[in-house]
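Example record

One chain of 149 residues, shown exactly as stored in the release files.
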Amino acid sequence: MAALPHIPIIQAQNVPYGAGMDAAGSRVYIDPEFPRQGALHTGKLIDTIPPTAIHEITETRYLQQGVKYAPAHKYANEVEVAYLRHQGLTDPEIKEYEDRLRPNIREVRRWTGPPPEDLNPKPYEDEGEMHLLRPPKQHPYADTAFPRT
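Predicted structure tokens for this chain:
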């Protein structure tokens, strides 16, 4: 398997869906709440950062070539699985890894603070989810509500 290019992985900013890259493809962002590792029922301990970074790098390279998000994401998943196989995981272990990681991806799919300013918006544009990059709209009277008695 080819070596990864040297791309910094920044794990200090909020990222919808847990991970993403800047539009230039020069930085991987991973949400601070995203799990760093996980133990499978077989006892294997998986470092989630390398396969997540590989996924984001692959996905971004396809997006930069004009591929829409859905197929770019599918291709990135395939490369991520190939990496996990190369690391010695069996297909049942990869399925467990994916199943156990999926709820964490959904969990960080909420507003917890501003994402990186240079986070690539293309996946959110393609999926109609640009709202995930902005703070939620507040009710116009939220700060002036009558006090509860």
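Notes: Residues 9-123 form one domain.
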